[in-house]
Every structure is written in structure tokens, then in C-alpha cells.
Task: inverse folding
């Protein structure tokens, strides 16, 4: 249990923000695929990244690879291992990971010639993989699938003899994450580009070069939440940049509607409160669903009406995040209406201090961190504080240094 409350309604803090695990994980896979080693500066210390790093250094001597709850690692390693020239592996994870579907990615790799089987339940980990050379070629996939499936395929594509022509049926969701993958591939010398609804990756080799990982905009979202619920603030977040590859940088525009001003400074951003708060907002978070929980808590705390869509992928995250948010907001006497599998509605309510049960975390780091900003309003207890290590290990330490403890 973690009980937190702010020492003041005004926050002044300078935070060296944790690194992006999204960028870090892509860089790790590219380095493992590259003929020559290179330096990854500012690699994320998040559990997900550290697990992936360890496995990429040990897979040649280990036959059972357990990634725990690291979803990105499961998706990226599936393609990576399937296309190694030789080897046999069992790729497994936590109980929740074994309930997260992976059939679409496996089917795509099988159609390219990969040898992958399911150990227990069809469509779900653990996976049994036999590494082999794969020619590549043409592949059609539903554009509505997780961007991690698409990025997993793209990352290994330059090493395929025929490259990859990846065509999409329907609208592509979470496109910023795909664009992030493409940008990083290009940085390392890959010849990859969009042509209509198809991404074309030419067969070639990655070129080793040093890369510096940006700070994590997803992690920044919790500080935006704190800023929104403060009376006044001056919060400096180091390591972020204006021209970011990360889709969650949409925070800048979204939180302007919630009274938070973002100023880009040398080496980071400055958050201040201006109290120009809209009474009602409508958001489409299809390109940045990971910040949905934080925004919902901010709106609940401010009494703002919000209609939010683009949440389809949240059902298959660490938990069903939409259902979990409904349950936990209900503890605050706030009703979250689930309209469809991708759309919710939060009615305007005045949130006042109440004695509430601890906020359950569902083994989900974002559940813990998204509710933490409510400490600006009244004391709140988080059920499992250790879960934040998945993406932001220093979260509680940073909050304490800002006077929230």
C-alpha cells in the first residue's frame, strides 16, 4: 500500500524524466539485428526494457525465455526469434500475458514461413519457436490490430531476403507508434517508406550508430495530471523535445484544455497553470491510448465532462483498462459510462474529499500512476505501489522530491 498526499496545492519541481521504453525497446531490437554493436545512450530503466535487454543478451544460450508482464517484449521477440537462423525457444510470460492474444502476429509470421506453435491455448502465449531464415515478401494485415504487432514485423523486415510489403485492410490505428518505428529504422539505415496503404521495406542491413533516447511522454502525463489539479505550478520536465517521435506528446494540446500551459525550454518543457479550463471536451485517443487513464482522472478531479473514443486497444493491455477505470472511479462516486468497446463518457461531477477504499492497480503500472495526481486534492492510497517499475521505476521518488508523499 502507498498512501500519498501533497504538502501543498502549489508545486515547484524539476524532474529528470525517465527515458522512453518505446524508443528503448525498438533500439534494442535493432541493435540485436545489426552486425555491429552501438551505444544506446539514456536507455530506459523500466522493467520492460531491462527484461528485453537481458533476453537479447542471453537467448543464444537459453531455451526458455520468460518476459513476465512485458507486452512489447513478447511481441518484438516473437518476430525476432522466429527469424533467427537457428534455435528453439519457449517464449512465455506472466499469467496475464498468457491471456493476451497474439494470433494475428503469429499468423502473419507463419504466412511468411515462420515455424511457431502454441504450447497450451491456440492464439495465446507461451509460444514454441524454431528459428529459421525467412524470405519475406507480401503480407496483408488488418489495420486495426495493435501497432506493436506491426512494429514487430517491420523491425525484422530489412533482414528478410525479399524485404516486406506490408499492406493494410481498413484504417490503421496507433499510427504514431508505427511512424516511430519507421523513423528509428531509417535512422539506422533501413530503406522503408509508405506507398498508399502499404509500407515497403527493402532488404538491406541496419547500420550501427549511437542513439540517444528521449524522455518518456507517457511518464510526463502524470505530471500533467498533477499540474491540472494544482492551484499553481512550475514543473520542469527534462529530456523532452518538441519534435518527438512519441504519440503521447499530444498531451501538450490536450492539457491546454485543462488549464496547463506547456513551454518548450532548452532540454525539456515547463508546465504552468493558467486556469483556462474548458467545461466539456471531446477526445479521440486512437493515436495515444496510453494517456487515457490519466486524462480521465484529471477530468474527474476538475469536474469536467469528457467524451473519449479511440480506446479499443485498452481491453487487451495489462488489464481491461476501461473496465478497471470504471470500477476505481466508482470508488470516488464518479460514474464512467462505457458506451462501446472503444468509447466512454464521464459526466461532470464535483469531486470532494471522501473516505475511499485503496485504488486497485490490477498489475497495471498506469492504474497506479494515473490516480496518483488526486493526492493534490486529498489523501489517496494506491494498492500496489511497486507496479510502477514496469515503466517508471523512480515515480514515487520523483513525487516525493516534488512534495507529494
Result:
Amino acid at each position: 500500500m502507498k498512501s500519498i498526499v501533497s504538502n501543498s496545492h502549489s508545486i515547484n519541481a524539476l524532474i529528470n524524466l525517465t527515458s522512453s521504453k518505446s524508443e528503448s525497446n525498438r533500439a534494442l531490437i535493432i541493435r540485436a539485428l545489426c552486425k555491429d554493436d552501438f551505444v544506446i545512450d539514456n536507455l530506459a530503466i523500466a522493467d520492460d526494457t531491462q527484461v528485453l535487454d537481458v533476453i537479447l543478451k542471453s537467448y543464444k544460450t537459453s531455451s526458455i525465455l520468460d518476459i513476465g508482464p512485458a507486452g512489447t517484449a513478447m511481441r518484438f521477440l516473437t518476430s525476432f526469434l522466429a527469424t533467427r537462423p537457428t534455435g528453439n525457444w519457449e517464449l512465455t510470460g506472466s499469467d496475464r500475458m498468457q491471456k493476451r492474444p497474439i494470433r494475428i502476429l503469429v499468423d502473419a509470421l507463419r504466412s511468411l514461413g515462420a515455424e511457431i506453435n502454441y504450447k497450451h491455448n491456440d492464439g495465446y502465449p507461451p509460444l514454441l519457436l524454431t528459428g529459421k531464415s525467412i524470405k519475406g515478401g507480401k503480407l496483408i494485415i488488418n489495420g486495426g490490430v495493435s501497432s506493436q504487432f506491426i512494429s514487430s514485423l517491420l523491425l525484422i523486415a530489412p533482414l528478410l531476403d525479399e524485404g516486406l510489403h506490408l499492406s493494410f485492410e481498413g484504417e490503421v490505428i496507433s499510427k504514431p507508434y508505427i511512424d516511430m518505428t519507421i523513423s528509428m529504422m531509417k535512422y539506422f539505415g533501413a530503406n522503408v517508406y509508405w506507398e498508399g496503404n502499404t509500407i515497403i521495406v527493402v532488404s538491406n542491413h541496419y547500420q550501427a550508430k549511437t542513439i540517444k533516447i528521449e524522455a518518456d511522454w507517457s511518464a510526463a502525463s502524470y505530471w500533467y495530471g498533477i499540474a491540472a489539479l494544482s492551484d499553481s505550478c512550475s514543473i520542469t520536465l527534462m529530456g523532452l523535445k518538441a519534435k518527438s517521435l512519441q504519440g503521447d506528446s499530444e498531451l501538450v494540446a490536450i492539457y491546454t484544455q485543462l488549464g496547463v500551459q506547456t513551454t518548450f525550454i532548452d532540454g525539456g518543457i515547463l508546465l504552468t497553470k493558467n486556469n483556462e479550463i474548458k467545461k466539456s471536451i471531446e477526445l479521440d485517443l486512437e493515436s495515444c491510448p496510453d494517456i487515457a487513464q490519466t486524462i480521465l482522472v484529471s477530468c474527474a478531479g476538475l469536474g469536467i465532462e469528457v467524451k473519449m473514443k479511440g480506446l479499443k486497444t485498452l481491453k487487451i493491455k495489462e488489464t481491461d483498462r476501461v473496465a478497471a477505470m470504471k470500477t476505481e472511479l466508482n470508488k470516488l462516486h464518479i460514474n464512467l459510462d462505457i458506451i462501446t468497446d472503444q468509447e466512454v463518457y464521464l459526466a461532470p461531477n464535483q469531486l470532494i474529499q471522501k473516505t475511499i477504499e485503496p485504488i486497485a492497480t490490477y498489475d497495471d503500472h498506469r492504474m497506479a500512476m494515473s490516480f496518483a495526481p488526486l493526492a493534490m486534492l486529498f489523501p489517496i492510497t494506491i494498492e500496489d505501489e511497486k507496479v510502477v517499475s514496469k515503466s517508471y521505476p523512480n515515480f514515487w521518488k520523483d513525487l516525493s522530491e516534488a512534495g507529494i508523499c
Remarks:
- The first strand starts at residue 2 and ends at 4.
- The CA atoms of residues 32 and 56 lie 7 Å apart.
- The chain has two domains: 2-19+214-401, 21-212.
- The mean pLDDT is 94.
